[in-house]
Amino acid sequence: MSATSYDRAVELRALDATYAGVRGLVVSGVTHVPRIFRVPEQHQEPPQDTTEPIGHEPAAIPIIDLACGDHAAVVAAVRRAAEEWGFFEVMGHGVPEVAMTAAMDAVRAFHETDGGEGSDKARLYSREPARAVKYHCNFDLYQSPVANWRDTLYLRMAPTPPDADDLPDSCRDVLFEYAHQMKNLGNTLFELLSEALGLKPSHLADIGCNQGQVLLCHYYPPCPQPELAIGTSRHSDGGFLTILLQDKIGGLQIFNEEQWVDITPTPGAFIINIGDLLQLISNDGFRSVEHRVLAKNIAPRVSIANFFGTHIDPTSMRIYGPIKELLSDKNLPLYRETLASDYIKHYYSIGLDAKTAISHYRL
Question: Which SUPFAM superfamilies match (predicted)?
Fold first, then answer.
């Protein structure tokens, strides 16, 4: 299609109408990245010098063993990681390996099924905000400047769990169990983060930071021209906290000290990152950091991101601002208060486009 006849909106609607997402394109035998997925030159990152001086180890996010037996040391490690990196990995987390493996296998199996008439994919394909369970290609397909090379199964698991029949047959029991495991781990992490802020362990839970829970089960098909596309555009997460399980393919990067840092997959570990709302209520005590996922051509990539935040409930009337106990004459509030539901509406309205949502609320 010539530049003069290209109509992006038409192309986006055509992709949406297939109900088959990016995987449908790959299955159809596409050998070139369609224009709607091509990262514009002005948005492309300049090549980085990946060579390291001899004897210099590349930067890596902290790895914290939650079961090390030294509680004070764990709290201190979480504090440093949340302040300096906004990302860290956890081992000794208590989530059974069988639950992690089963969840990844179930997500992969769902995404790799055909999406014909009568299938779970066709039944679930939707962009309706109120739906607790849905499947789609890019939640922000019509907002973001470039479509991402991924498909997603979306599950809103709390505060009101979906009906069991709403979930795909192939992964219903497995993902309910996985969500339960994530809720338990999230409670532990919120206690540690509360203590890291100098607050009582229950503080973040008491103000509802752990009440909303969403699973985003992502599938990144192999990309025929990965240098022209992006798996997930650079962004920061909008909620309080994210727990990510990724497979061995890799591709996740975080932006640290003006460069992109690879998050190398660690078997058995979860990746934890601070969200915008936790940065806001901690008054910049903790960092919500931009990250992205590169497109790959070696194999499909699967990940499950568990997001916590009452803002996930569109009817929430809870107001969030910098925690009063953290403020003083020397630590004045940096953000205005916001209705939780207003924040998420703003976040979703702009799509994934760097770290811009939180700046709207800065004083």
Answer: Clavaminate synthase-like (SSF51197)
**268: region left, alpha or beta (phi > 0 left; psi from -120 to 50 alpha):** left
Query: What is the span of the domain harbouring residue 118?
Result: 8-37+63-361
Which parts of the chain are beta strand (E)? 63-65, 87-91, 133-136, 151-158, 213-220, 232-235, 241-246, 252-256, 259-262, 270-274, 291-293, 301-308, 319-320, 338-339
Distance of CA 30 to the CA centre of its chain: 27
Q: Is 110 helix (H, G, I), strand (E, B) or coil?
A: helix
Q: Which pTM does this prediction carry?
A: 0.93
Q: What is the distance of C-alpha 91 from the center of its chain?
A: 19
Question: Within a domain: residue 54?
Answer: no
**What total number of domains does the chain contain?**
1
Residue 344 lies in a domain: yes
| Helix ranges, the chain (H) | 8-18, 21-27, 71-84, 97-111, 120-124, 172-196, 203-206, 276-281, 340-350
Each residue's pLDDT tens digit, 180-214: 999 999 999 999 999 999 999 999 999 999 999 99
CATH number of the domain encompassing residue 107: 2.60.120.330
What is the C-alpha to C-alpha distance for residues 337 and 319, in angstroms, rounded to an integer? 6
Residue 3 lies in a domain: no
Confidence of residue 49 (pLDDT cuts 50, 70, 90): very low
Distance CA 134, CA 155 (A): 7
Selection from 334, 235, 243 nearest residue 291 by Cα: 235
Interatomic CA distance for residues 100 and 129, integer angstroms: 28
| Distance in angstroms (rounded) separating the CA atoms of residues 168 and 175 | 10
Cα distances from 194 to residues 25, 197, 242, in angstroms, run 45, 5, 16
In DSSP terms, which residues pair with 214 in a beta bridge? Answer: 156, 307
Among the residues of 247-316, which ranges form H helices? Answer: 276-281
Please report, in angstroms and rounded to a whole number, the separation of the first and last CA atoms in the chain. 46
